[in-house]
Amino acid sequence: MKTLSELKHFYQTQLLADLKALELKRRKVLQKRMYVNTVILCIVAAAVFVTIKFGMPPHIIFISIVLSVILAVGAYRFIGKDYIAEFKILIIDRIVRFIDENLTYDRMACIPKSTFMLSQIFKTKPNRYKGDDLVSGKIGQTKICFSELNAEYESGSGKNRSVRTVFKGLFFIGDFNKNFSCRTVVLPDTAEKLFGRIGQKLQSMNLVRDDLIKLDDPEFEKLFVVYGTDQVGARYVLSTSLMKRIVDFKNKTNRDIYLSFIGSMVFVAVSYKRNLFEPRIFQTLLDFGPVREYFEDLQLAIGIVDDLNLNTRIWSKN
Amino acid sequence: MWIAIIAAVVVIVLVVLLYNSLVGKKNQVINVFGTIDAMLKKRYDLLPKLITTVKTYMQHERALLEQITEMRAKAVSGGLSDDEKVDLDNKVTKALGGIMVAVENYPDLKANQNFLQLQGTMNEVEEQISAARRAYNAAVTDYNNAVEMFPTNMAASMMGYKLKKVFEISEEQRQDIDTDKLFKA
Q1: Rounded Cα distance, B71 and B39, in Å
Q2: Of B120, B139, B142, the CB nearest to A316
Q3: Structural domain range at position B121
Q4: Which of A130, A250, A274, A277 is the most exposed place for a label (fewest CB within 10 A)?
């Protein structure tokens, strides 16, 4: 694990030069966007003018606004594409390898949907699924793999269209340090917090999940609800020390986290509202602030190995 | 007329639910105790291998090793009551703990591949036993809650269900393992 001062040194000696070059590109991207904005304003202004001058129905204005917004979004994406790609190749990739030489970064790849569903954390199968920034490799004895994901479920059509987020954030898979054949899923606990005992009774009646597992760590139980296929197996996986570590990790991230243990692997999903590892468009790239944020986001995911003590291999799995 | 019938049906359904839930919880306790038994058997099967592997190295712990062999023989011979099984399990856990601590004094043994593999398997079995004990305590707590809380306590007293004991660590185990004392025995 690298310290912030090591990062600062790395930033000053290795990254700054490339950041300066990228900064020029960023300004160009911003300029092009301003240009697109002006064109759109002109189109809308023209539509308004025409409508008033010639007394045409007001739908024209509405249609022109919608069309121009669509055009703008497309244009923005096109303009920013190269800039974002270069940024990820030059900066994010280097930060990943700075944290650990054994890791590889692929900006376009992500955890496949089949694996996402395999974790059994989210029961809804998303019909809109995308992600990027895949990092994989081995930390000590533990193989890991994580990426940013945005999984949504779109229902209805036309006016009734609604898009619900299934999961947005960081999705991590790691080799667990014990062998086990059961399935255990750890979810954030909302019902018990609100309704106490009755909440727990409701949780035990959940039909889509496995049996409810009531564990013996009160802090853990307050934060999470556990479902599993084997009462003893779940406790073998969720040892007293692992439960404490999971609570510490949750308090460290201060976000909703979900875990599952299947096939001797551990899946961890950390919810984020913002996009991760994207370059800024509206602010300068040259500050240490954003670099620090990328580093801390990456460090959080890679640090799961240490946080959950996955490299302690004193059982029969090696 | 109809109200009376509906009320009667509701009462019967409730009674059936209460009865079944109690029986389910009682059976869960028995089920998990069976799992503990199975895990203990795994451990008792591993013990001879452990003893042969460490015997040649650990000259000073002869007495302790013999103690473990005796306890194992007793466990395997069968015919023990549940309480006796639990008691023996506690004693063996304590003795094994002592051995694992003493291993620190034998660097040759620590480097032995056979021993390392065996230690990994033993750690696994010990953790599984620990997990089974925790599951047992959870099942017993669930059962005891049902026996004592309303409304299931009414059905419980009618069915003659009594409270069960959870796995407790005895006072002597709660004190730190004093290895010197262990090996003087």
Answers
A1: 16
A2: B120
A3: 2-184
A4: A274
